Give the backbone structure.
Amino acid sequence: MKKRQTVHRSTIKVEKSNGELKWHSFEEVFKKSAKNAIFSKAYNEEQLRLRLASQIRATRTKKRLTQKAVAERSGMPQSVIARIENGENGLTIDTLGKVAHALGKTIQLA
């Protein structure tokens, strides 16, 4: 009789080892990957980008502006604002400046 194995949602990676399947949790894979300097740098940059996207959306909603209003004020299509807020696109300083201006904010680089 074969042994039944339960797979949880957090199980993400399978490796073949000696003909057997070995399951790893997200935490195990992430912990191992985080030791890699290139991965760590990319992960941190992505976290910053997503945090910025969230701040843009929060500022817009706090000011009770629609994406369309911000787009018109910044001279961009509404779809670009949506992609920025969803974290789908990175931002150039120029684009960030336009969005910041449309939201009545300034950019301060450290």
